[in-house]
Amino acid sequence: MRIGIVCYASLGGSGVVATELARALALRGHEVRVISTDEPFRWRDDIPGLWFERVETPAYPLFREPQYLLALATAIVRIAQQHRLDIVHAHYAVPHAAAAYLADRILTAEHNPRPPRIVTTLHGTDITLIGSDPSYTRVVAFSIEQSHAVTAVSSSLRSDTIGALGISREIRVIPNFLDCATYRRRHDPLLAGRLRDGVDGVVVHASNFRPVKRVDSVIEIFLRMRQRVRARLVLLGDGPERDAAARRVIENGLQDVVDFAGEQHDLVPWLSAADVFLLPSLQESFGLAALEAMACEVPVVASRVGGLPEVIDDGVTGYLCAPDDIAGMAERTAALVADEQLRIRMGRAAAARVSERFCAELIVPQYEECYRDVLDPPSRR
Ligand code: GMT
After folding, report:
1. Mind listing the domains of the chain with CATH numbers?
2. What are 80-113's pLDDT values in tens digits?
3. Is the shortest distance between the CB of 121 and ligand 1 below 6 Å?
4. 12 Cα–ligand 1 center, Å
5. Model-level pTM?
């Protein structure tokens, strides 16, 4: 199939999933074009059948706002015609589903013999935060209804979409996935040695530092657990809450035991040096970062919200607590750092869960089936 994958380039799970899906599809023999404003985070064009198509959003002094929706719809029309796309797969509904819909209308009105079918994948905040904001709801809901197929990364997100947007159409649940050959425990002895020096354990958090990730809670949990064990906190990623987090670290005199490691292209050695991964988010439709940690045999302590219970098996591969239960998360984290046997058992169970349910080999065929169904609906076969 000839597939166009639309995604955000910025640091975020939806862009990562879209990029990994594009790679996996190209490796399976499809022609795949990733359509974005910039090369996505973690982009590599080292395999045949995979291309990057840039969306230019020119600035014009008259406008205060960049016209991204129009630029993207125009780019989709051009790429669909030029490369005879069969599928346009929009990752993150806002505004990608609307841009894909607009492109479809243009191609149809211009009598394009076979406009591509539109598949939209919902990732989370496109529904739970942005899409359900009254400023956007009508267009987001309409463009989701108009897509030829819609997928959500968890059952929880499917329910949220039905509840928040009143969507009545079929939404398939296709969970996120990892390249399990890459995501496996891989030690960098130098890095692990540095992080573990002088402490009993290492706690890691990785995110885009937006308020929904609650990095302030990560620091609060770490402060409390340090009353029981000597630990280091490693914060991976970057975003709007980073400066506030850095101030909190200084206010609490934690500079020597908290590392801001920034954005890392290869998370595996960092995760492999960890004893516990913390994800106390306010909302999380899936929690790709938790899955990456689990693949590296790291148990996760997280909020019991959204799709996280579909990823983490409470008491088996990690612990789930109420999002405001900072004391409970601190206690669980300290217990894991203090008890090596418990940590190893849970870490191995976590990695086993990832290989049983969340490897690319299991999930990518579900997307291929979805594409085949919209190109040739089962009722017409
Ligand atoms: O909120 C983010 O972290 C970014 C957002 C995105 O742009 O990718 O993440 C959402 O999609 C990820 C990939 O499907 C999920 O793993 C995250 O759980 C989801 N974030 C939220 O629901 C808050």
Report:
1. 2-177+360-380 (3.40.50.2000), 189-357 (3.40.50.2000)
2. 999 999 999 999 999 999 999 999 999 999 999 8
3. no
4. 6
5. 0.95
